[in-house]
Specification:
Layout lengths: L11 E5 L3 H13 L3 E5 L6 H8 L3 E5 L4 H14 L4 E4 L5 H10 L3 E3 L4 H42 L3 H15 L3 H15 L4
Parallel strand pairs: 1-2, 1-3, 3-4, 4-5
Amino acid sequence: MSSGNGLAGGLRVLIANEEAERLAQLAPAIAGIGHVAIARDIDAADVATVTLADRPDVALVKIGAEADAALAIIAKIVREAVFPALALVEPNDADGIAAAARSGVFAYLVDTSRDELRSAIEIALKRFAEFHNLQDAFERRALIEQSKGILMARHGLDADHAFAMLRDHSQHGGKKLFEVAEAIVDSHLLLVPPA
């Protein structure tokens, strides 16, 4: 199901904040744009447990009086890379914005109007998808380089000839290049003689 704003309807939004009053204010704002608010008073150690229990799609973390705790939550979410984190900062808080950026937020907002919430969540989800696509591309590239190294060592080839060998096998076998590379790396691990 998709809403008119380009977002999937009914996202589960984790609201992490140390202030109970602020949690109570943010939950209706999230619900007001068609999403489910999961309000929690958590710390960084709780992120994995909350993620498993509540399965959020995105997190909104308030950078407030306990900025270090909020930044630790953001950093933990980003490290686990399960869903994107957004920072809610005070207006004109350049230091809070910079600290949130260093922690790895995918977007930030300064108020909780419907338009700003929608936009910030949409930006965070798009950046998160781009991040994962880039991460996948790096992993595929590393796998291809590793398989080239195996072919170079096994057959005494240079890098260009090893890549040509991979490419030819990919084209003739009807498989993607990284699939051929993955098969080479996997089989190489099985065929390496014991030390």
